[in-house]
């Protein structure tokens, strides 16, 4: 709730200390207003019409909650102390609440001016040093109430706790406390409050307290301040109740008054003020060269895994769930294909999606598949492919670490689903990496140390609000997986990626640093006698693509091992290669001679390839060798095909050609498909692509931070609107408009005043009604008047505009001391 006293809706100050937040905002320079709008960008949506509107908007509940959420722990503690302090609060009183009577920690007093300045800069506190005021909405959010406890653990004041108490009960309390009797409840409450705030008298009162009563006060001291009592309380509780040290709040419930608690706390609002951020220590040192090499190796692995994922999905991409996202079964299958965990598989899929390399194809049976952008990405050098992935990860709001958890309706969050965006994710990732970048090269700290620092910079709203902590932990793990860190330390190329205001330039420089550390592609393999080929490094793309058809990957690591099998050789023959082509390819790309077992394997599969021909009947099977067909008919495994002989060399099947081909291959044969003309059909897996897609836009946590140009324009507009709303007009013969109304003058007076302003260069105040009927007040400096129009510099819009004279309702000169 905001009031006209707080927001300043009554106009400008007549001098002296500001009486409202709006008045204080008027005294701030443009740079300070721009800093406020930068720190609280929600105030710009839309741009306030004047400073009174800005003050009102800055005091709304939603905006204040956002501002409080972005305070560091000490600034928030200062705001919490102001919420339980008198309103207004002198700086000395606030200092006592933060440091206590003994002021044992000089750091608190040293940092207090910075915290107050932070609150003032963000328009959460206003007023002079002797009259600091926390905006009313922040006080309502932070002060103790029946709805919520104070973060300080303090309870209500004596005045608040005794509201509604009978005068007789108040009289008995002040008499038991040794205070002069009075029948005025207000005087009784004031006397009790003064007793609790007087350190010497309060110490004397507590000196006579039973030991059990002291123990009760100790339990309530730091909160929560509420307790329960029976209808017949024990003697030590009765002692506290009789003297007002425990005040009833309801049947069977009591509370420790704030003034009494502050005495017991030696004046401190918080048990442990935290004026400084926790140090990033202890630090573990690693050789920077080792860190850079380890991160580069993982970066290369990341490229390989993303390519493996999209290669698998380009031929048989998983179906999109009806509600969006990837099914659990498809996630498990993808994890098995990538030989990794389901959590890592979710990360790689989300990373490819964030980089614009993966999307749904939009077909009737919607599937995930690579985008056309994936082909462009494959053509880039390895270092540029990595920077593309890394910059996408830094910017995305996708959070794969949350996949599998339940939403508010109890449904599991699906990988690639619509509910995995979290607005704070990019900010948390960036901050985690920035903290690592603040350490010396090769240095790392524990995750707990980082979490403690992040919790100080942005305290969670509650003990259960751990989203930022979870995002930070996942950021650490994902940075290691992606190759930005190694052994918990930030690599040199990652430091470069984070540096500089221009992301494209930073990415180019990071790629240049990473390139020498990545393995160079090779153009050869080493063929082994055990039907394997060893690639001693990453292969050139044409070689890798052909070898992927001819052989199966058996293992990966520093070197990739491929294995040749009858099935893999047949796959190459199905793709249109001949035996001669395969012999020539292997001889041209192996540093070792082609082993005889491999040559025999190729020739044997080629000799049998195509002896059986499959066509469409539903399907048919033909072969010149009648014995082969008889063998197939006699085999039990062919029963599902329901084969029957049409001729000595032809069998008909009640199965589709693809099913017939797969079954025969499973039985150990090497059939080939043929066309209606009897020609062998070359079969290869089609690389499916989606229509052109753009990368998903991040879902921000709130309004974006405005740039300097927008801030400057907004400040000028607010200043001009405030000038129009608060400027003193010279008295004129025309009747003064009602509060908030437009000036009214005759057409002749309007024309004369505007023409005079052109000659003198003065600014005037006008009322204007646009073509849609919208009324507004403007401050303009007329430049010329002709043809029924006035051309003027509009201070409100900060630009030159032309106004039809017949739409100007009236005009008034501004006071000499205004412009």
From TrEMBL:
Residues 750-811 form the WYL domain. Residues 525-647 form the Helicase XPB/Ssl2 N-terminal domain. The lineage of its organism: Bacteria, Bacillati, Actinomycetota, Actinomycetes, Kitasatosporales. This is DNA-binding protein. Residues 1-21, 725-745 are annotated as: Disordered. InterPro entries: WYL_dom (IPR026881), XPB/Ssl2_N (IPR032830). It holds the Pfam family Helicase_C_3. Keywords: DNA-binding. GO terms for molecular function: DNA binding. It comes from the Bacteria. It comes from Streptomyces cinnamoneus (Streptoverticillium cinnamoneum).
């Amino acid at each position: 709730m905001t009031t006209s006293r707080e927001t300043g809706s009554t106009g400008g100050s007549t001098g002296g200390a500001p009486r409202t937040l709006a008045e204080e905002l008027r005294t701030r320079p443009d740079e300070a207003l721009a800093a406020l709008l930068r720190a609280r960008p929600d105030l710009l949506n839309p741009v306030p019409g004047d400073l009174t509107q800005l003050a009102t908007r800055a005091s709304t509940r939603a905006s204040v909650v956002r501002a409080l959420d972005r305070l560091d722990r000490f600034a928030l503690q200062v705001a919490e102390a102001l919420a339980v302090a008198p309103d207004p609060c002198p700086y000395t009183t606030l200092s006592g609440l933060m440091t206590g009577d003994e002021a044992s920690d000089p750091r608190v007093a040293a940092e207090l001016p910075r915290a107050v300045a932070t609150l003032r800069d963000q328009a959460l506190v206003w007023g002079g040093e002797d009259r600091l005021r926390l905006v009313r909405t922040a006080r309502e959010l932070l002060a103790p109430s029946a709805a919520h406890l104070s973060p300080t653990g303090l309870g209500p004041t004596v005045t608040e706790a005794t509201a509604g108490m009978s005068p007789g009960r108040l009289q008995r309390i002040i008499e038991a406390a040794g205070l002069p009797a009075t029948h005025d409840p207000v005087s009784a409450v004031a006397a009790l409050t003064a007793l609790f705030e007087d350190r010497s008298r309060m110490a004397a009162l507590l000196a006579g307290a039973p030991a059990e009563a002291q123990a009760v006060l100790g339990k309530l001291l730091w909160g929560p301040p509420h307790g329960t009592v029976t209808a017949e309380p024990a003697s030590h509780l009765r002692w506290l109740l009789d003297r007002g040290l425990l005040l009833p709040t309801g049947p069977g419930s009591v509370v420790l008054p704030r003034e009494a608690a502050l005495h017991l706390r030696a004046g401190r609002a918080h048990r442990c003020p935290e004026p400084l951020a926790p140090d990033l220590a202890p630090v573990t040192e690693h050789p920077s060269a080792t860190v850079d090499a380890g991160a580069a190796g993982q970066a290369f692995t990341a490229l390989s895994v993303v390519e493996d994922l999209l290669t698998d999905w380009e031929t048989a991409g998983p179906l999109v769930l009806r509600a969006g996202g990837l099914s659990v079964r498809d996630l498990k299958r993808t994890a098995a294909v990538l030989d990794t965990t389901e959590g890592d598989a979710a990360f790689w899929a989300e990373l490819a999606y964030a980089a614009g390399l993966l999307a749904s194809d939009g077909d009737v049976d919607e599937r995930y598949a690579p985008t056309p952008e994936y082909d462009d990405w494959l053509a880039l050098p390895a270092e540029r492919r990595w920077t593309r992935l890394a910059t996408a990860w830094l910017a995305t709001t996708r959070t794969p670490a949350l996949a599998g958890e339940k939403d508010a309706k109890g449904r599991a969050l699906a990988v690639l689903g619509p509910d995995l965006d979290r607005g704070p994710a990019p900010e948390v990732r960036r901050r985690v990496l920035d903290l690592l970048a603040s350490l010396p090269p090769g240095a790392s700290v524990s995750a707990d140390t980082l979490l403690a620092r992040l919790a100080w910079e942005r305290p969670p709203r509650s003990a259960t609000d751990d989203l930022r902590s979870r995002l930070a932990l996942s950021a650490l793990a994902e940075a290691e997986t992606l190759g930005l860190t190694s052994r918990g330390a930030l690599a040199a190329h990652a430091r470069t990626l984070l540096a500089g205001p221009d992301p494209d330039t930073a990415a180019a420089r990071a790629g240049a640093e990473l390139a020498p550390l990545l393995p160079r592609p090779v153009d050869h393999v080493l063929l082994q006698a055990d039907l394997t080929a060893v690639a001693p490094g990453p292969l050139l793309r044409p070689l890798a693509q052909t070898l992927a058809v001819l052989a199966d990957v058996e293992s990966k690591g520093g070197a990739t091992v491929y294995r040749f099998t009858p099935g893999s050789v047949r796959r190459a023959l199905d793709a249109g290669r001949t035996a001669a082509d395969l012999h020539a390819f292997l001889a041209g790309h192996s540093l070792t001679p082609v082993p005889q077992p491999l040559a025999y394997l190729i020739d044997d599969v080629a000799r049998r390839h195509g002896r059986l021909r499959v066509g469409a009947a539903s399907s048919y099977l033909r072969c010149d060798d009648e014995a082969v067909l008889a063998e197939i008919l006699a085999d039990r495994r062919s029963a599902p095909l329901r084969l029957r002989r049409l001729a000595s060399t032809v069998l008909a099947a009640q199965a589709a050609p693809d099913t017939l081909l797969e079954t025969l291959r499973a039985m150990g044969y090497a059939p080939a498909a043929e066309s209606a003309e009897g020609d062998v059909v070359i079969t290869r897996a089609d690389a499916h692509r989606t229509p052109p897609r753009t990368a998903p836009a991040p879902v921000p946590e709130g309004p974006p931070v405005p740039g300097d140009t927008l801030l400057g324009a907004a400040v000028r507009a607010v200043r001009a609107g405030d000038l129009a709303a608060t400027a003193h007009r010279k008295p004129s013969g025309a009747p003064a408009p009602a509060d908030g109304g437009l000036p009214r003058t005759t057409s002749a007076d309007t024309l004369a005043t505007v023409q005079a302003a052109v000659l003198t260069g003065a600014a005037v105040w006008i009322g204007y009604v646009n073509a849609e009927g919208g009324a507004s007040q403007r401050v303009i400096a007329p430049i010329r008047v002709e043809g029924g129009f006035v051309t003027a510099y509009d201070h409100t819009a900060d630009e030159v505009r032309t106004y039809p004279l017949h739409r100007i309702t009236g005009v008034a000169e501004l006071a000499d001391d205004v412009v």
